[in-house]
Design a protein that fits this description.
disordered C terminus; 392 residues; alpha+beta; single chain; 3-stranded antiparallel beta sheet; 18 strands
Length: 392
């Protein structure tokens, strides 16, 4: 099923689902449960393409609700609603509302080297982090769903399932499906554990907001992925959805940049290793056990961060929730890899032999904290310095 924005998407998807269940045609050879793990390793660094900062409806996002912040060298361009001196929040969580806000579409496949991006971003753990973030919000089972019915398809700063196939491949390695929903109703969301919403081109109707709220009330998580490269009107659409869900998380009208940690000579596309200590479990390799800590009494200050920042791979400080599993029906090869031949296909699947493929167990580089801003730097420098070497 091609994940575009066309009106009969649901009808065609149901036809495909029937074919899958019956094992017809190509689906006779589909065995998702046999898909090996893909890029699953402890989170050492995450990159953000043109992110917006995260704030609250009434001011700064407190430290204890910001699992990921930009490094201390980052700054805000544009017209930020809230100005942060250091430690700009790139991810905010609202566990009570089961909502998270991520400053950018960090699963956009256009930043994959196989798709033409100039830097090898397979060394970053965006997929692991996002999946752990979802697990921290909910213990529900089912597919990860992504909204594709509000102008996200082929938009520069939003994605649908057709533009996230590498993330889909990661999920399949964990026995989880990724499915697009163009119609937002209680019925279409019923089989999901989480709904991903990238910046829409139109607002959600009252009926759609009610359906998403009901999905959340029934235990599902909602993750909003913003952007610092969209119009204020589009940011307002996603902020309105957050408000309708009873969350105080908001995206600011800015673009965060960080020249010392930039990728591909673009200060708006950068890495960070500034992770909050209490969320250590979110930065482990995905095993279905990630959880959030009990909320600390943060005051929202944004001075020195060394007291609550950490290198990744720490022990979860909150209660660990038992793993959950589900049956998933399909497997999808990253389509862009096909043009590169069998070597590119195997590399995209993490199956290429030799020493230059992905290391599914994670790298062995050490990490240390700097004295200022709580920045954790692997091997004393940015990982972009060794990206041209191929692999970790």
């Amino acid at each position: 099923m091609y994940g575009s924005g066309f009106a009969r998407h649901r009808e065609f998807w149901l036809t495909e689902a029937t074919a899958r269940d019956d094992g017809r045609g190509v689906w006779a050879g589909s065995d998702i449960l046999s898909a090996p793990e893909y890029r699953n390793r402890p989170v050492e660094s995450v990159f953000f393409p043109s992110p917006a900062s995260i704030r609250l409806a009434d001011g700064e996002l407190p430290r204890d609700r910001a699992p990921v912040r930009a490094m201390s060298t980052a700054s805000q361009n544009g017209s930020p609603d809230v100005t942060y001196d250091v430690g700009i929040p790139l991810v905010g969580v609202d566990p009570d509302a089961r909502v998270a806000a991520v400053g950018a579409p960090i699963i956009d496949e256009s930043y994959e080297q196989v798709e033409g991006f100039s830097v090898d971003t397979s060394v970053y753990e965006n997929y692991v982090f996002l999946t752990n973030l979802i697990r921290g919000l909910t213990d529900a089972t089912g597919d990860v769903l992504i909204d594709g019915g509000h102008g996200q398809f082929a938009a520069d700063h939003a994605v649908t399932s057709e533009e996230t196939v590498y993330y889909q491949r990661f999920l399949e390695g964990q026995g989880i499906g990724l499915e697009q929903r163009n119609e937002i109703t209680a019925e279409t969301l019923a089989d999901g554990r989480a709904l991903l919403v990238t910046v829409p081109g139109s607002s959600f109707t009252a009926a759609e907001r009610d359906a998403i709220s009901s999905f959340r009330d029934d235990g599902g998580a909602v993750v909003l992925l913003g952007s610092g490269a969209v119009s204020p009107e589009r940011t307002r659409y996603v902020n309105e959805l957050s408000a309708a869900l009873g969350s105080d998380l908001r995206f600011s009208l800015d673009t965060v940049v960080d020249e010392p940690h930039q990728l591909a000579a673009d200060a708006a596309v950068f890495e960070t290793q500034s992770f909050a200590k209490p969320y250590g479990g979110v930065f482990e390799a995905f095993d279905g056990d990630a959880s959030f800590p009990a909320r600390a009494s943060g005051d929202g200050a944004n001075g020195d961060e060394s007291s609550d920042s950490t290198t990744p791979g720490t022990t979860p400080s909150g209660p660990v929730v038992a793993d959950s599993s589900l049956d998933v029906e399909d497997v999808l090869l990253p389509g862009g890899a096909v043009a590169g031949g069998i070597v590119a296909v195997l590399a995209a699947l993490g199956l290429r032999g030799g020493g230059d493929g992905d290391d599914p167990t994670g790298g062995d580089g050490s990490a240390s904290e700097t004295a200022e801003g709580g920045d954790a730097r692997a091997d004393g420098g940015s990982r972009t310095a060794t990206q041209n070497g191929g692999g970790r």
